[in-house]
Amino acid sequence: MFDLLLAQYGVRRDGLPGEWSTGYEDASQPYTPAWQEGVTSVPADAVVRLAREFAHTAEKTRGRCVIVMGAGTNHWFHSDTIYRAFLGLLMLTGCQGVNGSGWAHAPPGSAARGRPLLDTGALPPGHRRVTAGSRAPGGCRPGRCP
């Protein structure tokens, strides 16, 4: 399964057939930082730096990294692919299922889209889902605490 995951991201693995990139600077093969720069206009160096910083933080904190997002990606046609990218990053860095880590997706009105992914274990153990009208710990209503 791991080989299939890496093949999807264009990572060469011994014994698997196919054409593979020669490095981060190879813009001729998909999924490299150089290739994505032509698609997204995000500089390849920025992508490499961000990936290294996220992985370094995950290593130093033993997987306590979280991606916090609102409903922004829901406005794009392939939002489910963006969600998979978030979850793939969290799984590959050991941040899925670690208390205080994972994917914080809680924008109002978009719970139906994220719900199946949250049910797969994206929330840390012991997470208490706070819904509109429920009381947060300490008795405050969400958005109305002193």
UniProtKB/TrEMBL annotation:
Disordered: annotated span: 121-146
Extent of the signal sequence: none
Gene3D superfamilies referenced in this protein's UniProt entry, alphabetically: 3.40.50.12440
Gene Ontology terms: cellular component: membrane
Protein name, entry field: Molybdopterin oxidoreductase domain-containing protein
Organism expressing this protein natively: Streptomyces ruber
